[in-house]
Amino acid sequence: MENATKCIHSGYAPKNGESRMIPIIQSTTFKYDTSEDMGKLFDLEASGYFYTRLQNPTNDMVAGKICALEGGSAAMLTSSGQAANFFAAFNIAQNGDHIVASSSIYGGTFNLFNVTMRKMGVDFTFISPDASDEEIQAAFKPNTKAVFGETIANPALTVFDIERWAKIAHNNGVPLIVDNTFATPINCRPFEWGADIVTHSTTKYMDGHDATVGGCIVDSGKFDWMAHAEKFPGLCTPDESYHGITYAAKFGKEGAFITKCTAQLMRDFGSIPSPMNSYMLNLGLESLPVRMKQHCANGQAVAEFLSKHPNVTSVNYPGLKDNKYYALAQKYMPNGTCGVVSFCIKGGRKAAETFMKNLKLAMIATHVADARTCVLHPASATHRQLTDEELVACGVAPDMVRFSCGIEASEDIIADLKQALDSI
Fold first, then answer.
1. What is the pTM assigned to this prediction?
2. Residue that wins the pLDDT comparison between 240 and 202
């Protein structure tokens, strides 16, 4: 079944006379006839639901759809993309462990890893996605437990060489985690290139309408935890907080990771989405293939227009043939990358600020990957406290604009850009 069909039919199959849409099970609690029945759930001897802080049927239906789209064995929804990345990493690495990560990742994830998780005792080494195999290998330590990267980095738009990084990770006996938010499984399925775990901020293209915050973790079911049991005691030794269950032994490669993530992390942190949010996410997923096609077409058209405008000094988009990552983008995402384009404006920060004021169609917002075109000038918004020199030092040019193409007509988006650029 193609992904365009899975977006409609996977995760929930109504029976005769049942609701066509997934049901919203808006309940914290589930009733059982006997204590023995409920006890089987607590012992993980039977499947079912007893408290929505851990699992909810509506959430699991939507997780099942995303799992099918990625080609995984199991999946779970979280309350945000940040929660998904935290759970995916912390489910493997604990106090005293180490993770190798691409340095070109979303700033929120970088801060989560570099500041918050370091406080929890997990160490990180950040390596350029363009580093040589030898440089990447040199970052590994005896206590390294995972490797992390983004298919298309937000907002750097670097393209991650999944196959190459997966090979190095596996040579070191650890899984590769890939955040696939910008590409979505419509344009790239990292498991097909060797990734082991995929995460998403479903807030972005999957929802697509500024309606819900959410995240998802999908397991490929292919990484053999027991083959490296000494590296992963959390999965390969008894969990005394859950009746002495050894997850990898009881649930195998296909179910161990997500079961542990649910039974331990969701139980203790409770970062679960509401059933209503999951219902709304499912609405977004049903139109995802159609929207991604338009996002990518608009991104390509905008990038080509900007590359020819005299008031634009540089354009960053992996779909342009002169882009550094064009070849990798064609390898992993031959049908399109994403709708986000970044570019620099002639005249520096002041010209960029004038450009922003001149826009009429594009919405000034911190958000990206929305049905409506969104634009952000970091130097006057998220990074406004920095001087021009400080901006350059942290890799954000004073005149750089991040432009997230929506699904409007490309002619209207370009007309808005043209009038705003022409009047600088």
1. 0.95
2. 202
